[in-house]
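Postdoc handover notes: sequence design on the structure in folder B. Input tokens:
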């Protein structure tokens, strides 16, 4: 028999304790930010109906995800994202929910696709959604929570930016350029590939959708718009899309993160269900894929069979932000120290060590109790590499006196503790 590989399946990940330090830093920041902004936690099954995913993303979704039939012949899939599931859950109880609702989830998602830097075949993703309101304050709240999460992780403001645009604005500009509304979805999908394929290939896609050379030239000219004022000059100050964007930037200023926002008409988002403001966050140097992205999707609930309901949401994956954090903060995982390590010299001191550990745990302290007697050098070496803040090592003299030394592993300060 051949040896079994010890590697995780291609595109999947294992998380050793040192990896979990980084992952917990991200997850803790996500949860803290979402709840700080009043979002309620939800979850769902990781297996979803393939029909639901196809209705939301088209038949081609089957080529991009882990799809299968169960033993009863049902066509199912591992969820590639959380938004279709959220739409299904909301539609199921739509008449009983107290709209607007603010929900968040940390979901593991799976996509069977070509891997590149920042893209695996599985990832964890924070989803935050507000359903039931058309107010731009919804976009501002979601972006505010995302900014709070990034700051909580330790990401400096100058290290990243949120690029903001509007599907509605680009639609207005395309219409003003003489491009029929029926062709807008194809234009959005083609332009979203900019940077991934050449402009010549994008032009070929637009020709395939029936755009003539004049319309293609006008489309690329629009992508040269560099500011919201320039866009307003083309769309007119009476444009609803311009008004929404100005409202968002003004609200972001009130919330204290306007300096992180920047208008970028090239942000389109490839999924067809987006209807209004869209956004993507990138590191300042643009070395990595998008850190997070999202936007307004006012028609998705109706698409899955629910009642038409306005909504806005975002997805924030753990892979890219983990890479950006390591780039900005360094490879060494930051240790958040707390609690105690307790060790002992011989088995004679073991009962005292157990009693001290039990007492500290009853006081709600975290305690890592050594499982065997150790020499001081070995114990303090392991304690120094742990996440504990304090170390207590018991020898015969400590037990005899009923007092032990407590070493602060950061400051090296020594204090006393009663046994």
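Designed sequence:
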């Amino acid at each position: 028999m051949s040896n079994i590989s010890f590697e995780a399946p291609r595109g999947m990940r294992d998380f050793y304790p040192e990896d979990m330090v980084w992952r917990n830093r991200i997850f803790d920041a996500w949860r803290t930010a979402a709840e700080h902004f009043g979002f309620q936690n939800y979850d769902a099954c990781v297996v979803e109906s393939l029909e639901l995913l196809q209705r939301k993303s088209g038949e081609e979704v089957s080529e991009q995800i882990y799809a299968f039939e169960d033993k009863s012949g049902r066509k199912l899939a591992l969820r590639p994202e959380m938004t279709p599931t959220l739409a299904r859950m909301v539609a199921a109880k739509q008449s009983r929910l107290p709209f607007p609702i603010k929900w968040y989830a940390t979901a593991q998602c799976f996509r069977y696709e070509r891997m590149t830097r920042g893209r695996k075949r599985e990832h964890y993703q924070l989803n935050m959604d507000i359903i039931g309101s058309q107010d731009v304050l919804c976009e501002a709240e979601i972006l505010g929570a995302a900014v709070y999460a990034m700051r909580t992780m330790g990401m400096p403001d100058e290290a990243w930016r949120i690029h903001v645009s509007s599907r509605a604005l680009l639609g207005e500009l395309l219409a003003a350029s003489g491009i029929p509304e029926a062709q807008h979805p194809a234009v959005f999908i083609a332009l979203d590939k900019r940077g991934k394929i050449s402009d010549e290939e994008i032009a070929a896609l637009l020709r395939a959708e029936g755009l003539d050379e004049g319309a293609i030239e006008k489309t690329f000219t629009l992508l040269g718009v560099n500011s919201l004022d320039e866009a307003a000059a083309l769309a007119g100050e009476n444009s609803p899309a311009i008004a929404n964007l100005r409202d968002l930037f003004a609200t972001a200023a009130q919330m204290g993160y306007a300096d992180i926002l920047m208008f970028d008409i090239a942000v389109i988002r490839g999924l067809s269900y987006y209807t209004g403001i869209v956004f993507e966050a990138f590191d300042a140097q643009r070395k990595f894929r998008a850190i997070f992205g999202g936007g307004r999707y006012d028609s998705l609930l109706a698409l899955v069979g629910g009642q038409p309901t306005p909504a806005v949401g975002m997805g924030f994956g753990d892979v890219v932000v983990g890479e950006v954090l390591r780039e900005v903060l360094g490879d060494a995982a930051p240790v958040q120290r707390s609690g105690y390590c307790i060790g002992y010299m011989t088995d004679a001191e073991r009962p005292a060590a157990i009693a001290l550990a039990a007492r500290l745990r009853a006081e709600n302290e975290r305690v890592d109790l050594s499982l065997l007697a150790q020499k001081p050098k070995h114990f303090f070496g392991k304690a120094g590499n742990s996440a504990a803040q304090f170390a207590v090592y018991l020898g015969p003299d400590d037990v005899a006196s009923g007092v032990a030394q407590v070493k602060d592993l950061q400051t090296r300060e020594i204090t006393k503790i009663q046994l």
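Context for whoever picks this up: Residues 340-418 form a domain with the Rossmann fold fold (CATH 3.40.50.800). Don't rerun without checking with the PI first.
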